[in-house]
UniProtKB/TrEMBL annotation:
<dbReference type="InterPro" id="IPR002559">
    <property type="entry name" value="Transposase_11"/>
</dbReference>
<dbReference type="GO" id="GO:0006313">
    <property type="term" value="P:DNA transposition"/>
</dbReference>
<dbReference type="InterPro" id="IPR047647">
    <property type="entry name" value="ISAs1_transpos"/>
</dbReference>
<dbReference type="GO" id="GO:0003677">
    <property type="term" value="F:DNA binding"/>
</dbReference>
<feature type="domain" description="Transposase IS4-like">
    <location>
        <begin position="119"/>
        <end position="352"/>
    </location>
</feature>
<dbReference type="GO" id="GO:0004803">
    <property type="term" value="F:transposase activity"/>
</dbReference>
<dbReference type="InterPro" id="IPR051698">
    <property type="entry name" value="Transposase_11-like"/>
</dbReference>
<dbReference type="Pfam" id="PF01609">
    <property type="entry name" value="DDE_Tnp_1"/>
</dbReference>
<protein>
    <submittedName>
        <fullName>ISAs1 family transposase</fullName>
    </submittedName>
</protein>
Length: 385
């Protein structure tokens, strides 16, 4: 009887990829390239700012294949060809890769010590085909404090809606009992009822498409006195001066439509942003409304809600980094599998760089590009290699 060899427990993410069955969907006949080596090579190329074109990423993999193979003890492997690269990527089990990624670099949640998370979706514009207006979309979960991406899910923007994807992601990640910030798209009874029922806290934007509730909230903010308020100091940035003011008002659930009775709506938050361009011009003002099932009884509790609204925009900063720093939208592909897999690899890069906390992410990518061995050392420290 032949006994199958027992693989040692993986101590690096590379070893985990190399030893996980089911990650590689290719036929076993004629395999030449290691899935783990290719995915790691792409990750290093992304860390060097080579995103935007698959050909650019491939050239980086070829030019730096020798030090990578030495670092992974796979010196007998040759770099994959440009023609084979998208074919191989399309065979990777993207769902399993994401599970491995967030399992290895994930965090442990504590129901008694809740954390704030932001959820939002982003369209992968490089996946939009000619003649179409929508493509693949990615929903991310971001922690407010560390700005780490702790979960993702994908859907086809031309066929599916973001709302059920968000609910499924909250369920899969066990986040219903945490503290969640969402944009106005997700002010939906199915979503907020589930968070309220699980003992979680939510803050969700509200806009005019919720006509009755929106008018009720505006009237509430005009007719009654705010329970708590705060005005932040004037901040300078992006060519303007900006000052934010916050007010929160109590809500009476019995005054709302029956569809909201199980949502636990307790607080209305009004945010006013006054802006003045540094080059002159007329000042502008923007007013936004949010609702929450949290009912603050002290100023610090109200400040926590105000801060959570401010920190929700960190997910937009993350999307900006994907678009501008990593050039995500410029990488065009007709393959759904490749588009989603590359998005997961960028998530890995953003989380890794977030641990390093560079002052300037672009400068860090350029530094890695100039000093590839420094990048190898960093990946060893982070247990990627």
């Amino acid at each position: 009887m032949t006994v199958a060899p027992c693989l040692a427990k993986p101590t690096t993410f590379f070893q985990l990829l190399d030893q996980t069955p089911g990650l590689d969907g290719r036929d076993n006949r004629g395999k030449k390239h290691s899935i783990a080596l290719v995915l790691t090579g792409l990750t290093l190329a992304l860390c060097c700012g080579r995103d935007g074109k698959l050909s650019s990423l491939h050239r980086h993999m070829v030019n730096h294949s020798q030090p990578l193979c030495q670092a992974t003890n796979m010196t007998h492997h040759k770099a994959i060809s440009r023609a084979q690269l998208p074919l191989l990527l399309a065979k990777v089990n993207g769902v399993l890769f994401a599970q491995l990624l967030f399992g290895w670099f994930g965090l442990i949640l504590d129901a008694d010590s809740k954390r704030w998370f932001a959820l939002d979706g982003k369209e992968l514009r490089g996946s939009i085909q000619p003649g179409h207006t929508r493509g693949e979309a990615c929903v991310s979960v971001l922690t407010h404090d560390s700005e780490a991406i702790v979960g993702q899910a994908y859907y086809s923007g031309s066929k599916e809606s973001e709302k059920p994807v968000v609910r499924q992601l909250l369920n899969d990640k066990g986040l219903y009992n945490q503290k969640i910030t969402l944009d106005a798209l997700h002010l939906n009874p199915l979503t907020v009822n589930a968070i309220e029922g699980a003992g979680g806290i939510y803050i969700v934007g509200i806009k005019a498409n919720q006509a009755l509730l929106y008018r009720y909230c505006i009237c509430r903010s005009v007719l009654i006195q705010a329970t708590f308020e705060r005005t932040d100091a004037v901040k300078r940035g992006h060519g303007r001066l900006e000052q934010r003011s916050y007010q929160c008002f109590s809500l009476h659930p019995t005054s709302l439509a029956p569809r909201w009775h199980a949502a636990g709506l307790a607080t209305l938050i009004r945010v006013v942003r006054n802006r003045q361009g540094l080059s002159g011009g007329a000042p502008s003002q923007e007013v936004n409304y949010f609702v929450s099932n949290s009912q603050p009884t002290t100023q610090p509790e109200a400040d926590e809600l105000f801060d959570a609204l401010r920190h929700h925009w960190r997910i937009e900063v993350m999307h900006h980094r994907r678009d501008v720093t990593l050039a995500e939208d410029r990488l065009r592909t007709e393959s759904q599998a490749v588009s989603r897999l590359m998005s997961s690899l960028r998530t890995m890069v953003i989380n890794l760089l977030g641990r390093k906390k560079p002052k300037n992410m672009v400068a860090q990518l350029e530094d890695f590009a100039d000093k590839f061995l420094t990048l190898i050392q960093f990946m060893n420290q982070e247990l990627v290699l």
